[in-house]
Amino acid sequence: MVIKKKIDEKESSFEGNPVTIYKDGHRTHLITIPKKIDFFSMIEERKTSVDPQFLERKIYGTGYTFANVGVSVCLTVGVSDDNYLVLVKQNRRDEDDEVLKLISGYVASCQRPEEAIKKELKEELIMVKNGEYLSLDIEEILNNKSAYLTRSIDSDKIILDDYHLDCLGIQYCAPTNSAQLIFGGHVQIENVDGLSLFHAEDVFNQETRKLDVFLTDDLFLAKVKEGGIDGELYKLENGLLKEVTPKEKTSLSEFFVPSKNGIITQKNIYLDSILEK
In angstroms, rounded to a whole number, what is the distance separating the alpha carbons of residues 154 and 261? Predict the structure, then answer.
């Protein structure tokens, strides 16, 4: 089954704020810059890579300013006695590649990261049971501990402006000149009968200059094992976990790339490279 159908259309009026990040001992400080930046300017900034050593010196020194900060959720789903990491497929037109990644988004102006990740999760994770859309308790999902543990993030305490931010940590990607806050979450499914998982994806329409929203079945479940994930990918369709044969060179996003002090030096990594470690 291959699904991709347009279900909505939205205005593409996103504006964010640059963020300066610096380390102070075991605390990571994020300072919001009161200057708005539009989506297209932000994407242009992400096309300019930064030297990883320079980035590390700045973060551990006077600070480094990113065009915006992104948010991702390390979301796991429990089915019977197994846990699965939720991955969605993205065609990255600016990078001319296709990757499996976490559900992610950006922090808009006048929006806190917690609000941004709740919005992304509510919009992107679609559960359908026997043809009926389910209402998800996003607060509960994010309050539950993710079953997947990653070592590729800076997990020190994060202070955003004047308050402590409750998340797993942060990553800095030198090739895309970007920073990503990582949240955790878990959904325990007690009864999978008739249940399917889908992904809602925003795609910019060059002609209308709006965002087309597509419902797709490009949501994958990677079985969690001790220390990571194994090579098995599944889709949950009508209550059945159906194994999906990965492409020979299935790419995972930068979230899975090994890091030093949270700093990542690759845009993506092949799934088989993860399994060899």
Answer: 6
